[in-house]
């Protein structure tokens, strides 16, 4: 497996375009006659585009995705449904497709009517510029940004067991309201693998569970989120190699979201090992990465491992505080701060000095070994900074 | 029922004292030969004093409580257990009691050995100054403060159905790491009611479930928390009137904790009505009060009701977005921002202007009516400010 240029357009047969005006952006991705699958927000309040796309993808087929940023088209009633359908219809008409061949996604503020004249203009503009080029993928990634500070895209290539080279490209956006089971997070993935809708759904779910669902920015869960994959079948049959590449792509995209969490100044990866079950490993990793106290300690470069232990303790995971081992790691340093329940980083120890050093790093890896079983999981997050508070105190006004 | 002066010392037969030095404080509360009960943190990592007090209260009897601030005596191994037992022993010896007649509590930083010389001196100092006076109760409330900005105490008097006047006094401390199932929260309650340990436990649990367990500051759950009640039996028999007074006392103390949440500039009360079950009402109220996005919106005086709806949506509570009604209320103003699923506070509406006005208030009440059933619950919290980040980024260093 290797990384390749071009994002979603690294995949043969995919065209794309993005257009922006003021607070609004529109992206269109076309991959005709694709097998398709999607994963949606777990929030009981769902935006109109979520309802529309669930319906569109039900037959396991899609030819295009249209997405807008700046307005979530959520809590907008029947009018919101009509606006979302209209978005799909404009794209479908131009491509001579049915409305149900087009997925719709929205991100932005909740509860305001979509400004359809602007959105319509942007869709039309995007439709006129559809291309298969790295720049087109970049434009898509940029047009779906909200409080994101950088566009997020990636493409990988791997060789399938049948000898065919397959590519997977993805774009995504964060960056607040990111939580397990997906925050305000959109990701669109293209590939030329051959797969049935069921195979694609199973592969996507497996990848999302260990990537997008393990990212926490603030613990809120959005009303709008979705990951959509379209597979146009120009390459070989789906297999374990494809899964490996899809897992990698989704994980790298998820890490970009964590790294670009609202107000984030530092990235943290938390690995929990030695758990009694996969569920325990995931709960514990997510609890640490979600803890406001851990997040502020990371921001303040404070090696307050007590907060890490406390978060594992309330995560619901089985643990024995006399067995737990905790280490901190940066690119340059690694230190065991608790070793089988014995505190190493006590006041005056060299371990504490190293721990303080590691905490100054902008990339911090926390490893918690519960020493109880065979399961492990990783979660991704960021610090909680003054800037997070500023961004979210000022968002809608 | 009326409020009375004197905190825990409003109760006949109770003596108390507090002593402080530098970062450390010690409180002692004596209520000899009391029936007693306690509720503890749900964290799997528990501090030594939690283990000691669980054991002490097992026979349903206590005569005293000793508590220290500045150090949590958590993750301190066998030495920590010995230190905690020693705290109990000093008090027990002076009062000619058994060690198991004394409950022990600690709050402060995790993972550092208790500085026993300082703690011993402070316990001795407190033991020499035991008094039944309002000032003694105030000293107790002050000595257990950590990042609290004001001491928290209250006493109430009510008339039991048997005609006896009964009093209940309480002190507590917050103020970060406060979450459902109790954060770094200690509360000590005295009363002269007559009750068996079982009756007391049931009354305490009922009161805690609707008060301390409904306060959220940052969603973290501490390793140290406990609520202890001692009843010396000098007044009449426990009954519904007592429960009512205990509920009120605990709720008022819980509100003080929310009001004094780390970095809090505003207090919020969230009431969820019309839920299908009590569990749904509680989950939904806690989700709103815990949401970082709602908390920052409150800080920024931004009437972003979409974040409220989204939090209810991911709380797990049954809801239908077309039925929900949301109102905001300050001391001066009240406004329906969503009415049976219809947004009232849209751009340009007078409702939005009023909503903005309400959000400027320092006391904000959010009411969410799910319009589905008969159950309701209230949760208490505060905003998420720059100051919360500052306090917690700098705590241990």
Q: Could you walk me through the main structural features you see in this protein, from its secondary elements to its overall organization?
A:
2 copies of one chain form a homodimer. Chain A has 397 residues and is of the alpha+beta class. Chain A has 2 domains: 2-259, L-amino peptidase D-ALA esterase/amidase (4-Layer Sandwich), CATH 3.60.70; 267-393, ArgJ beta chain, C-terminal domain (Ubiquitin-like (UB roll), Roll). Helix content of chain A is 34%, strand content 29%. Chain A has 11 helices and 16 strands. The first copy, chain A, has helices spanning 48-56, 77-95, 116-128, 134-143, 197-209, 240-259, 278-290, 292-299, 305-314, 350-359, 386-393, and strands at 2-4, 15-21, 24-40, 61-71, 102-109, 152-159, 165-173, 186-191, 215-216, 226-231, 267-275, 325-329, 334-339, 342-343, 363-369, 375-382. In chain A, strands 1, 2, 3, 4, 5, 6, 7, 8 and 10 form a 9-stranded mixed beta sheet that branches. Chain A has a 7-stranded mixed beta sheet with strand order 9-16-11-15-12-13-14. In chain A, helix 1 packs across helix 2, helix 5 packs across helix 6 and helix 7 (278-290) packs across helix 9. The longest helix of chain A is centred in the middle third of the chain and has 20 residues, at 240-259. Chains A and B meet through helix 8, helix 9, strand 14 and helix 11 of A and helix 8, helix 9, strand 14 and helix 11 of B. Chains A, B: Keywords: Acyltransferase, Amino-acid biosynthesis, Arginine biosynthesis, Autocatalytic cleavage, Cytoplasm, Transferase. Chains A, B: Catalyzes the transfer of the acetyl group from N(2)-acetylornithine to glutamate, forming N-acetylglutamate and L-ornithine.
């Amino acid at each position: 497996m290797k990384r390749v240029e071009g994002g979603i357009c690294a995949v043969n047969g995919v065209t794309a375009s993005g257009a922006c005006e003021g607070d609004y952006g529109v992206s269109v991705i076309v991959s005709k006659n694709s097998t398709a699958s999607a994963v949606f927000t777990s929030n009981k309040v769902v935006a109109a585009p979520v309802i529309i796309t669930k319906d569109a993808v039900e037959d396991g087929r899609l030819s295009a995705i249209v997405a807008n940023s700046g307005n979530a088209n959520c809590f907008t009633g029947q009018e919101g449904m009509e606006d979302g359908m209209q978005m799909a219809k404009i794209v479908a008409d131009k491509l001579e497709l049915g409305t149900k061949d087009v997925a719709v996604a929205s991100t932005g503020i909740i509860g305001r009517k979509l400004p359809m004249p602007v959105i319509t203009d942007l869709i039309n503009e995007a439709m006129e510029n559809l291309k298969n080029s790295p720049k087109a993928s970049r434009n898509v990634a940029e047009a779906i940004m909200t409080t994101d500070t950088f566009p997020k895209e990636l493409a990988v290539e791997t060789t399938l067991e049948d000898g065919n080279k397959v590519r997977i490209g993805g774009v995504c956006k964060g960056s607040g309201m990111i939580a397990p089971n997906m925050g305000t997070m959109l990701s669109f993935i293209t590939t030329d693998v051959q797969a049935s809708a069921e195979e694609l759904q199973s592969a996507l779910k497996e990848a999302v569970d260990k990537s997008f669902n393990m990212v926490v920015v603030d613990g809120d869960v959005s009303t709008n989120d979705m990951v959509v994959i379209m597979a146009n079948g120009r390459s070989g049959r789906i297999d374990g190699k494809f899964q490996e590449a899809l897992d990698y792509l989704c994980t790298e995209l998820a890490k970009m979201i964590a790294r670009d969490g609202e107000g984030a100044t530092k990235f943290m990866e938390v690995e929990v090992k030695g758990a009694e079950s996969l569920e325990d490993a995931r709960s514990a990793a997510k609890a640490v990465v979600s803890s406001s106290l851990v997040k502020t300690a990371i921001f303040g470069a404070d090696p307050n491992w007590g907060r890490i232990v406390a978060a594992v303790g309330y995560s619901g995971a089985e643990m024995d505080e006399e067995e737990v081992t905790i280490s901190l790691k940066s690119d340059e340093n690694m230190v065991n701060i608790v070793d089988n329940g014995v505190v190493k980083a006590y006041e005056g120890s060299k371990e504490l000095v190293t721990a303080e050093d590691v905490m100054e790093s902008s990339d911090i890896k926390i490893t918690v070994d519960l020493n109880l079983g065979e399961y492990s999981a990783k979660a991704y997050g960021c610090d909680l900074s003054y800037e997070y508070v500023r961004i979210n105190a000022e968002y809608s006004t």
